[in-house]
Amino acid sequence: MAESVPASGPRSGQVSGEDAGDRHEGERLQKVLARVGVGSRRTCEDLIAAGRITVDGQVAVLGRRVDPETALIEVDGAPIGVRPGLVHYLLNKPAGVVTTADDPQGRPTVVGLVPAEPRVFPVGRLDADTEGLLLLTNDGELTHRLTHPSYGVEKEYVAEVRGAPTRAVLRQLREGVELEDGPTAPARAALLDPSVVRLTIHEGRNRQVRRMCEAVGHPVLRLVRTRIGPIADRSLAPGSWRSLTTDEVRALAAAVATDPTAPPVA
Ligand code: URA
Prior knowledge:
By secondary structure, this protein is α+β, with helices and mostly antiparallel strands. It has two domains: 17-75, Roll (Structural Genomics Hypothetical 15.5 Kd Protein In mrcA-pckA Intergenic Region, Chain A); 88-246, Pseudouridine synthase (2-Layer Sandwich), CATH 3.30.2350. It is 23% helix and 24% strand. The protein has helices spanning 17-25, 29-35, 41-49, 140-147, 167-175, 208-215, 246-255, and strands spanning 27-28, 53-55, 58-59, 65-66, 73-75, 78-79, 88-93, 121-122, 131-137, 155-161, 178-179, 182-183, 188-193, 196-201, 220-228, 241-243. Strands 7, 8, 9, 10, 13, 14, 15 and 16 form an eight-stranded mixed β-sheet that branches. A hairpin with a 2-residue loop joins β2 (53-55) and β3 (58-59). The longest helix has 10 residues, at 246-255. Residues 1-23 have low confidence and may be disordered. Uracil (URA) binds next to α6. Uracil (URA) binds at residues 126-127, 130, 207-210, 223.
């Protein structure tokens, strides 16, 4: 993914012939295999020729190209890892911890709750008072995609609110709420308890859930993020983190594999 779309900056630019091909059709399978340490490219070609490599369950042939972020590539039935050097952590952020790398006021930061090396950055942000799931990674391309509004990754929140929202209020939350920076996009809203709302949004506007609930007359008393796209974990204790599994990284990459708003590649 990092080779096909830059983490930021223009999408156009000069590319070599092979990179141009990679951009359109994926990368050569032997190149992907070699990069994750299966062997030299020559060795990897031999493995492909011998029928020992499968892609998404089918035996691959020489010349095969793949999207390494989404393809399930196996050598003798064993899946290969994701790109080397990249780490992806899932943190259950407690209240009172700020989503920055460094806080001038000296408050505890999310970066301080995960290993210092390699250096990672939070994917998007949660308010200091908000609890729940937060990704941290050194994968700039994935971060870009997960935080860019055009990819529209769903985030699910559970909000304990003041009062008891009615069905009409839930409908308002679903259909869109007028905020000072414009109306919110359609969302999903369900009542879990008389004063507990589950809200699923795919925008990432500042303090969006708190502002939506406030706008419909039910200020948030407690807010917890419970899902980021395909990633959820009810058993991760507050303040704890774990590495995403290979399958989870693949699922996340698949969730942002295409930009629905991008013009078709010429
Ligand atoms: N919406 C909010 O209001 N706060 C958060 O931290 C995340 C989403």
